[in-house]
Structure formats: C-alpha cells, structure tokens
Design a protein that fits this description.
The complex is a heterodimer of chains A (239) and B (464). In chain A, the strands form three sheets. In chain A, strands 1-12-7-4-2-3 form a six-stranded parallel β-sheet, with helices on both faces. In chain A, strands 8-5-6-9 form a four-stranded mixed β-sheet. Chain A has two domains: 47 residues, no CATH class; 182 residues, NagB/RpiA/CoA transferase-like (Rossmann fold). Chain A has nine helices and twelve strands. In chain A, helix 7 links the parallel strand 2 and strand 3. In chain A, helix 6 crosses helix 7. Among the domains of chain B are: 231 residues, NagB/RpiA/CoA transferase-like (Rossmann fold); 51 residues, no CATH class. In chain B, a hairpin with a 4-residue loop joins strand 5 and strand 6. Classes of the chains: A alpha/beta (239), B alpha/beta (464).
Chain lengths: 239, 464
C-alpha cells in the first residue's frame, strides 16, 4: 500500500468516532445537534449569525468612506497612497518619485496602466513578460505593477503572477509602485476573495498575493524595521 | 525520572530565577498585548469570528480525508508533485531525494515549524547540503545553532546587543546595534542567496481543498522570494492545515495576524496553486508538496482532543501563558512550546515522556481564552494528566490519595488528623525546607499557612 493510502486509511479509521462540536468546551455533543436539540441549535446559530463581513472590522458603505478608510490604513502601514484626479496627475506623481529617489532604471510588465507609467517616466525599463535576468531586476530602482484589487478594510492590494508581471517583480526591487484604477477598490477581504474567485476560476494564476504594506520585520526586540527582504517602500497610485 | 522531566525542571528553575530573561520577555510581549487588543477591538465581533473559525476548522478536520483528496487532485492537475509521508524520517528522505535528483547544493528556506518538528536542517546538512534560513529571526537562531524560541518570534529572547555580537562574530559585519542596521546586514547576506540557491523550501499556513492552493503568511517577503526565484520549490505541510474553501481565508488571514502579532493583516499572504504555468514569466519549474502525518492521525483518533489539530500556530496561547513567560520557550525542549505544545507533544512524541508538560500549567485558562480557533487548551491539559495516570498509575501518588480518601471520609480520622497537624506545626517550622521536612517540595520556596487552633467546623459547632 502507498503512504497515501496508509495515511488516508488511518484518517478514515480515526474519524469513525465523532468529535464534540467546536467552541462549546464539551457542553454540547455532536449527537445533540444531529438529534435536533433546539436549544443547542439556537445557541449555535446565535453565536454566529451573519457572515465574515459582519465580524471583520467595519467598512463604510460609500466609495468615499472606503477610500478614506483605505488611506488611513495605508498610512498606518507606512505605505504611500495617492488618490489622483487624472492621468496628468498620475504622470506628475511618477515623475516626482523618479526625481526624488533618482531612479535610473525600473522594472515593469506589459499592461495598459503600467505601459503608461513607464512611458511617462522616460527611463530604461526591464520588462518581465518574456523572461528576464534576475540580477538585472535586482539592480532596478523600482518595480512598477498593476494589481487586481485595492482592499479598503486592510489598506492593502491583491496582485497575481498574471496581473503584476510574475512572482518576483512586486517583491525584489527596493520600491514597489502599484498603479490602480478607482474601480478596483473593494470593501473588504470577503469581497476581494469573491472577486478573485470569480475572475480566475477555474484557471488561477499560480500565485495570488495580498500585499499589505511594505516588507517589515520585528524580529529584533520587536522593533519595526521596514524592508526586511522585500521592498522598503510601497507606493499606491490610484486615479 | 526520565531525562526529559529532569531537563525541564532544571531549565525551568534556572530560567524562572533569571531576572534578565524575564525582563526581555516582558518587554517583548508588552507591545504585543497593546496592539493585539487594539486589533481585536477593531473587529465587529471577534467572538463570532472565533466561533466561525472553530467551526470551519472542525469541518475541515472532521472530513480530512475528503479535503486532502480534493487538495491533491487539484494540485496535481496543475503539475505539482504531491508526496505523502507517514513519518518525519520519510519526509526527510523524500526531500533529500528531491535535492539529490536536482544535484542541488544550496537550499534557501523560509520559516517552517513543521521542518523543525522533523529536524530537517540537521538531516540535510549531514548529507552535505547548505541550508540557509531566510526569515530574520530564524537566521539569527540558526547562527546560534539554537532551535526557535517561539512559534512566531524565533529570536525574541535576544537583545540587540547580543545580535550585534553574533553578527560580528559569524558574519564579520555589524556596524551598530540598531535593529534597522542589523536587519540590513541580514538583507544584504540573503539577497544573493535567493538568486543563487538551487532549491527554495517553504512551510505553509493553510492548504485550500476547493482550489488546490497552499497559503503562506509572512511579513518580510522572504517566502515570496523563496517561492519566486529558485528553479525548484519544496513545501512541507502538516495534513491538518487544510481549509475547505478559498473564501475561508478572508477570515483566517486577519485572525491569524491579529492573534499572532496584533496586525490587521501580515504584510504578505500568498496563495500558490502550482509551479510556473504556461504564459507566466517566472516561478519554479517544479513544485513538490510534502504532506506530513507524523502521528497527527493519532491525535485525530482521540475525539476528545481532536480540536487540538485546529491549531493555526499563531502563538497567542504562548504569549499569554504565565508559565511560558517565566520559563521561556527553550525550557520545553519541544518544537511546539507553550500551552498548545504541552497539549500536542504527548500525542506526537509519547504521553509518558512528555506528561510533565501538562503539569507545568496553572490551569488559569488564559490560553483557551486567547485561542482564535477556540481550542479547549486547559481542559486538554487536564485530560492529558488523567490519561497519563490512567495508563501508568504512580504507586505512591495513588496510595497517598487512597489514604487521604479514607481520612477525609471518616469524621473521627479527620479530626484526629487536624489535631495532629496542629500539634506538629512547631516541629514542621523547625525543619522547614530542610531534608527532614516531609513537605520539602512545597516549603523550599514557600511558607505553609499556619493552621488555626479552632477549625471552621469547631467554630460552627461552638457558636452561640
């Protein structure tokens, strides 16, 4: 017999005995519920009416409130979030970053927004789409990507290997710049997961990553340091 | 007395009296408590979220066979090679064989407690492979040839001064003891290693049955790089980490971050569903996922304690445990320390050898209250005690309780014992704490309360 069958066999054997219901510390058994004990059922339901959106941190209903929340959360995470009125403003914001940090070369990928950004910057660009040299990407001053969603609840973004130029682009260069559209904002995490599932089923990109602030560590005396292994800076430009 | 017990007692006594250690741990955890409480309060209902998480895990673990089959089918459909290991030894051999086949030399590794559980680094190094831990805390303890101190904060027992000295000695590079500069030293050391390593090794936080994904939670970006750059990727995961649905992560990711580190979300939460797919520009050409049992099915067979497999390794129970905070993570001598370690280690490594961990508890229940998936931790500690004494009763303990039972059930014996106790009090005081004292274990570091002349029962009977 293969180890697979051995392990599955042991699991099936073990599961012949029912476990008590979770979270009641032995007060109610599974038999109570399956026998239709109304008191147990009522208590069970009372403890968790609603869905994850009703328990996770509150998000306002209007888009304005959601952008306000996103901006506050991003600031708490030490990410730079700029809500811009037009493509001209987007271009100006990019040029300001380029000049302030003296960028010489950036890495990016093919995409309507990322192409616009690279053209606006007027710098040499390493494109990842048809393969790239890792050492060259490591030398780039910034990685410019698009994203799948902005999540108001967390102040973070969701990227995938398909939407953001592969696995390394959003994490290898020292500055990650996300270019997003306003319509990409979603309220909360359940909405983000539902959106991704709907967008990609059944052919998911091999990597989906929720990026919530620039790379960080607290491993030395629990003191926050940005840029542990990934980007020291995360800029989200949304127009 | 087995060596595990005596080692535990020696280390616990030493650490409990180490005021410097206590100070370091308290300082490290004070900040955690504040941010954790703030993040918990931001939830509309943390309690409902806990109950839902507990029920989701219950559903996952109680249909584990079904979920593992779905997970495997989905992973394999996209070109991932899935391996099954009943024991740690099998898992080590599977991983070593992958490295041999790839003619690998250097392995870059992101944080994995499961690999600590099977002592993977040691086995691979013995075969001549170079293993580099990329998580900063893990890198620090690897340089010290130590196991991680804590599930989530591996180097929390060290001060910046100690880390500076370590980097100076081992890397010859430590400009100052500022955490910022020390972190940058590690960043510089690691950067080229991601690029040149032959194999990237990761652990995992969750597996998703519905979509065939492995989810990895981290803050530093080291796991992201480990899963992006090397040509071969290997992931080791315990079979209990499975969740039924993709959407379940919407709840589990923020809960893990909140309970574990007081963060709303950790910096990177990444779901992998295969090696590099057609049309993608990077990522490993091969991905091997190793599913590990290592006696988890024995814990599964204990229906009473099955919910211990719900653990998401957030470390919240360690952080609040008065025992952990005083004796520290290394004292346990186990991969998983603190309350959850005391519950599961006897199942994973033998009840009789590890039953003492269940007694190293005040049964205050702080762990159970802190657990984001509502594992009944302190009751499980009691059940371990009961199971240990039922399977191998201690003769003198049993005799002592039998005698106590007789005395306590017979009023004449009881009042005689009371009188004797009162009369012998001065004698006990004279020998307190010395070799002659029968209650030495207790009185060495404590006073026995004085027994009054008149008991409550006497007072009740004589009251006017």
């Amino acid at each position: 017999m293969s180890e697979r069958e051995n392990i599955l066999g042991r699991i099936r054997e073990a599961l012949k005995v029912n476990a008590p219901l979770p979270g009641w510390h032995g007060e109610r058994s599974a038999e109570h519920l399956s026998a239709g004990d109304p008191a147990a059922n009522a208590r069970n339901l009372a403890a968790r009416s609603g869905t994850a959106s009703d328990w996770l941190p509150l998000v306002g209903a209007s888009v304005a409130e959601q952008f306000e929340l996103f901006a506050k959360n991003a600031a708490d995470l030490k990410a730079d979030f700029q809500l811009l009125a037009s493509r001209d403003e987007l271009k100006a914001a990019l040029l300001k970053l380029r000049d302030a940090e003296k960028w010489r070369r950036v890495a990016s990928h093919d995409g309507e927004l990322s192409n616009f950004a690279c053209k606006a910057l007027g710098l040499p660009v390493l494109l990842t789409d048809r393969g790239y040299d890792v050492q060259e990407m490591e030398q780039c001053d910034a990685g410019i990507t698009e994203c799948d969603a902005l999540i108001a609840q967390t102040g973070g973004v969701a990227v995938t290997s398909r939407s953001a130029g592969g696995r390394a682009l959003s994490v290898l260069p020292p500055h990650h710049v996300v270019i997003a559209r306003r319509e990409q904002l979603v309220a909360d995490l359940p909405a983000a997961f539902a959106f991704l599932q709907q967008k990609y089923t059944p052919d998911f990109p091999s990597m989906i990553s929720f990026i919530t602030g620039p790379s960080r560590t607290g491993d030395i005396e629990r003191i926050l340091v940005l840029g542990a292994h990934g980007p020291k800076k995360l800029t989200i430009l949304c127009y | 007395m087995s060596t595990f017990v005596s080692d535990f007692k020696t280390r616990a006594t030493e650490k409990a009296g180490d005021l410097r250690h206590r100070q370091v741990i308290r300082t490290a955890l004070r900040g955690y408590e504040i941010v954790r409480d703030k993040r918990k309060a931001a939830f509309q209902s943390w309690e409902s979220a806990r109950q839902a998480a507990a029920e989701t895990k219950w559903e996952a673990v109680n249909h584990l066979d079904k979920h593992l089959e779905a997970l495997t089918a989905k992973l394999e459909a996209r070109g991932t090679k899935v391996h099954w290991a009943s024991t740690g030894e099998q898992a080590r051999e599977i991983i070593a064989q992958i490295l041999r086949d790839k003619k690998a030399r250097c392995i870059i590794k992101s944080k994995s407690m499961t690999s600590e559980e099977i002592h993977l680094n040691h086995a691979l190094e013995k075969e001549g492979f170079t293993v580099v831990e990329s998580d900063l805390g893990e890198f620090i303890v690897q340089l010290r040839h130590e196991p991680p101190y804590h599930l989530v904060f591996p180097s929390m027992h060290l001060t910046r001064g100690e880390i500076k000295d370590l980097f100076q000695k081992e890397l010859g590079d430590a400009p100052s003891d500022a955490p910022e500069e020390l972190t940058m030293v590690a960043r510089r050391v690691m950067r080229q290693k991601y690029i040149t390593a032959d194999v990237g090794f990761t652990g995992a936080n969750f597996a998703i049955a519905e979509t065939g994904m492995i989810s990895i939670t981290e803050n530093e970006g080291n796991a992201r790089l480990t899963a992006a750059l090397p040509k071969t990727m290997v992931t080791l995961i315990g079979i209990e980490k499975v969740l039924p649905r993709f959407a379940d992560l919407a709840l589990f990711l923020p809960m893990l971050a909140t309970a574990g580190a007081g963060q709303p979300m950790t910096c990177y939460n990444t779901m992998y569903s295969g090696p590099r797919q057609p049309g993608e520009c990077d990522g490993p050409e091969e991905w091997h996922v190793v599913l590990l049992d290592n006696r988890r099915t024995e814990l599964l067979a204990d229906a009473e304690q099955r919910d211990a497999l719900h653990c998401i390794r957030c470390g919240a129970c360690l952080n609040v445990c008065p025992i952990f905070r005083n004796v520290g993570g290394h004292t346990y001598g186990t991969t998983y320390s603190g309350p959850v370690g005391a519950v599961i280690t006897p199942h994973l490594r033998g009840l009789q050898e590890w039953k003492h961990l269940s007694n190293a508890s005040s049964l205050c229940g702080a762990c159970t209250e802190a657990c984001p998936v509502k594992i009944d931790l302190h009751h499980h500690l009691l059940q371990n005690r009961r199971n240990a004494s039922a399977s191998e009763p201690a003769f003198f303990e049993r005799l002592a309780y039998q005698i106590f039972g007789i005395v306590a059930n017979e009023p004449a014996f009881w009042s005689l014992a009371k009188k004797l106790g009162w009369l012998t009090q001065p004698l006990q005081k004279a020998v307190k704490g010395s070799a002659l004292d029968p209650a030495r274990a207790w009185t060495k570091t404590r006073d026995l309360p004085a027994q009054p002349r008149e008991s409550f029962k006497d007072w009740w009977r004589n009251r006017k």
